Amino acid sequence: MIRSTVRCLFLALCFSPCIVNAADARPNVIVFIADDVSWNDFGCYGNPQARTPNIDRLAAGGLRLDQAYLTASSCSPSRASMITGRYPHNNGPASELHLPIAANLPWFPERLRDAGYYTALSGKNHMSVGKLEPGQSARPKAFDLIDRGRNKNNGGGHANWVRIAKDRPRDKPFFFWYAAYDAHRAWDGDRQWDAKKYGPRHTPESVRVPKFLVDDLPTRQDLASYYNEVTRFDYFVGEVVQELAEQKVLDNTLILVLADNGRPFPRAKTRLHDSGMKTALVAHWPATIKPGEVSDSLVSAIDIAPTVLSVAGAEIPETVQGVSMLPLFSDPSATIRRYAFSEHNWHDFEAHGRSIRDGRFLFIQNNRPQFPWQGPADSVNSPSHEQLRLQRDGNKLTAAQQDVFTAPRPAEELYLVDADPDQLNNLIDDKRYAADADRLRKLLDEWSVATGDTVPDQISSDSFDRETGDRLPIAKNAFRGTPAGTQRNATTVNNPGPR
């Protein structure tokens, strides 16, 4: 651990703007973000049916992190956490879907631009800055270039990735935030499929059906369409990597590949369980990371911001609650954190859940146990959810499938993650683990107090029907309540709590 810390400091000094004379000596960085992809839907994470050869090669040539967790299984709150290095409730309204990040909080690409990096965002953005308070200055520019990454033949957000890499200024190091719309519903990858590029479409027979879904043709076809989008995302990751190799800058480029939340299926997206909150995370940097490395150390999505800033030798704002992953790049067995915390706030439906992981256990607190965790509206509208409803109405659900409809739910859940990777066996009432539950409960309470978390008295309510997924006939924003942490001014709290 000491050697890792020394190496981390050495790297930071080497790449400090005060020491580096030539801008191109500093590492480039690309963060590839898939949309709505569960951690085990990449081939390198053990899915034999997933076709992700380019990401698999990056993992084989770099570091695969096997215990990486998001702070929210919800698109914009998750991305806001990554870009600020803060927990969702510490980002203000951005803890809930489609709302802005508090204006007092810096985004890490701002610091990269200040340090002389060329910065670009291409694809899904989903982030914005909130209203300025009296006395606040406008936020500095985070990206030199922003585009949606789409054209008439490509709705996946990656249409311009290679061109941006080609057209970048050659006298500056670069940072690219490449965020796909793949694999968000409604499957435009099927309509835009190019077999010459992506290979044959996935077939219903070729997919892997989780225990909590119905194994039938409609569900398998739904999953095949999802797999197609995962493969399309992988293709464009490969195209960018090839371009970097041709430019002879691949060795000095840190590449991170991850997703913002789990697959858009029942018991995945918006869940605090691994199917929603765990992410694949591949780090590739030939100049520093040895090939074929695997780490079982806990990391959080809020650790991305300090990692990238450390790599660039840029200043890390005091608002960042994460820790740098640099020690893991030289020693994958190093420990940078003991706990990973996640939260579930409003995403189409009223919710307030919190969780803590310690590498062995997952402990969940649900402050709205009266409601089912059926998933977001796009999942409730899916063929896969419809098949679950049909099985439910025919009294044919297994216990794993029934979980999607269970209400009331347990207020607390405890799982041994290695023995129960799908988290189907709740151990909260098992006396053998009572001490573990009590320890994690106290740590979660300590984290909530330290970070200024709250359960709002007036919480955002449902804006969709939980049974059909249809939008409710209510006035625009009438469902919005007070975001978590507002009562304690959590946007001004920088304490990370236990880690």
From TrEMBL:
A Pfam family: Sulfatase
Boundaries of every Sulfatase N-terminal domain copy: 27-314
Domain of life: Bacteria
PROSITE patterns, A to Z: SULFATASE_1 (PS00523)
Keywords of the record: Calcium, Hydrolase, Metal-binding, Signal
Biased composition (Polar residues): 484-499
Region (Disordered), start-end ranges: 477-499
InterPro entries, sorted: Alkaline_phosphatase_core_sf, Sulfatase, Sulfatase_CS, Sulfatase_N
EC numbers: 3.1.6.1
Signal peptide range: 1-22
Gene3D superfamilies listed in its UniProt record: Alkaline Phosphatase, subunit A
Record-level Gene Ontology MF annotations: arylsulfatase activity; metal ion binding
CDD domains for this protein: SGSH (cd16027)
Family label: Belongs to the sulfatase family.
Protein name (database record): Arylsulfatase
Organism: Rosistilla ulvae
